[in-house]
Write a structure and sequence with these properties.
The chain is mostly helical and about 110 residues long. The protein contains 6 helices and no strands. It has a single domain, classed as Hydrophobic Seed Protein (Orthogonal Bundle), CATH 1.10.110.
Length: about 110
């Protein structure tokens, strides 16, 4: 019984210790996308798509996806709309990422 209780506590401790994505994590992965968001174009830099794919694989929970969206939205605040948002929507398709960028303005 004690070993079962210890195992359950260990699993709960490991699960609760998992931190949600923060802007410190999102920023370095997303920053290579800012030039594309600013200027658009036919080609998205590989570093941008790689970063988005990394974030996509890290953002497993709704909270992670929400936090990633909020951080990305903050990162593009200085880029005049609607360009930033139109280019952000294109990133999902061009990089093969489905949920981090969709509905970008509504985190």
């Amino acid at each position: 019984m004690r070993s079962l209780l210890l195992a359950v506590c260990l699993v709960l401790a490991l699960h609760c210790g998992e931190a949600a994505l923060s802007c410190d994590t999102v920023g370095p992965e997303f920053n290579p996308c800012v030039p594309y968001l600013t200027h658009g174009g036919d080609v998205v830099p590989d570093t941008c798509c790689n970063g988005l794919r990394t974030l996509s694989s890290q953002a497993q929970s709704d909270e992670d996806r929400h936090n990633a969206c909020v951080c990305m939205k903050a990162a593009i605040q200085g880029i005049p709309p609607p360009d930033a948002y139109m280019n952000a929507e294109r990133l999902a398709e061009k990089c093969g990422v489905t949920y981090l960028i969709s509905d970008f303005t509504f985190c």
